Amino acid sequence: MNRVLRDGIVAGAVAGLLSGAPSTAHALLTRGDPLEASAAAGSLLLRRETNRARLLAAAVPAHGALSLGWGVVLAAVLPRRRTAAWGALAGLAIAAVDLGVAARRFPRIRALPLAPQVADHLAYGAVAGAVLSHVRIRADGPFRVSD
């Protein structure tokens, strides 16, 4: 497995696991449903499904594929310096793509509060960038900055 792919999968997996914290916290603070964003992610695969358990089960591969895919993209494009900051900016761009496209086509995603979803994407990019920075330093040593 080449290095960009390996690093991207690691970064995407870690970021995918942690990046839902903002929307989950928002849901809990506003007494909303902390699993609604996950159910909405499941609707990416099961568009007309209404059974919550099936939607939550479908959320795992849907969110996983998106997280890993974007992780590989970030591993390919993020610079080696200030990677977490650039990752956060990339997270905002990913939000524009993910939420802009998905919100038009998937009513459950459109119904989610926008700010927490953008915050999730920002967190995803920052975490992915931080992980990429870490794995690159471990692989190259702290003084090498180019591949």
Summarize the structure.
The chain has 147 residues and is an all-alpha fold. The protein is built from 7 helices and no strands. The longest helix has 27 residues.
Summarize the topology.
Elements: H1 3-18, H2 21-29, H3 36-42, H4 52-77, H5 83-105, H6 107-110, H7 114-140
Helix pairs in contact: 1-4, 1-7, 2-7, 3-4, 4-7, 5-7
Care to describe what's here?
With 147 residues, the protein is mainly alpha-helical. The longest helix is centred in the C-terminal third of the chain and has 27 residues, at 114-140. The mean pLDDT is 93. The chain has one domain (3-140). It is globular and about 50 Å long. Helix 2 (21-29) packs antiparallel against helix 7, helix 3 crosses helix 4 (52-77) and helix 4 (52-77) packs across helix 7. Helices cover 76% and strands 0% of the residues. It has seven helices and no strands. The chain starts with a helix and ends in a 7-residue tail after the last helix.
